[in-house]
Amino acid sequence: MQNLTDPNRSLAEAVRVRQEIDLRIGASFTRFQTLNFRDILLGFSGPNQQVLSYGPCQFPTLGFIVDRFKQIRDFVPEKFWTINLRYQKTSKSGRPASGTTKEDGDIKFEWARDRIFDKLTCLVLYERCLDAGKAKVVDIVKSKRIR
Asked: Which pLDDT belongs to residue 24?
């Protein structure tokens, strides 16, 4: 956007020609299919005749739809674990520092896969926090989400 130039006229004309070809082929083959195969494929004719549409862009689009359907159908949910920490600043006497809000001490662990899918790894990290003597477990939350 910072270095805008004039559109390439040759590319613009190529797109226009492709649109025109797609429109003409689609109209021709739609008419051909409808007139010659409607009775065979749909098994009826009459006043409520249906059109058998054809378009060169329909095949790649159908491919995208089928791929997405397969992804959804083949999805296998995985259990995952997370560790959420909150750091609380303390004064020299060991008491919570005044003026500290919960947001000041939030620490977020981030992983390459966004979640920990290995329970043992999560337990090891959890135990290391406890063994350091500086962590305190406040809450354990189990939840199930369906999207």
From this structure: 93
Measure the CA–CA gap between 144 and 147, rounded to whole angstroms. Answer: 10
What tokens does 20 get? 């025109």
SS3 68: helix
Q: How confident is the model at residue 6 (pLDDT cuts 50, 70, 90)?
A: very high
pLDDT in tens, 7-58: 999 999 999 999 999 999 999 999 998 888 877 776 665 656 688 888 887 7
- Angle value at C-alpha 111, between 109 and 112, nearest 5 degrees: 160
Query: How many angstroms separate the Cα of 32 from the Cα of each of 28, 35, 42?
Result: 6, 5, 15
- Rounded Cα distance between 55 and 70, Å, is 23
What gap in Å lies between CA 46 and CA 49, rounded to an integer? 6
Q: What is the largest CA-CA distance in the chain?
A: 91
Residue tagged 């005044």 (tokens) = 98
Domain ranges of the chain: 9-73, 77-147
Which pair of tokens denotes residue 73? 């159908």
Residue 141 to residue 137: CA distance in whole angstroms? 11
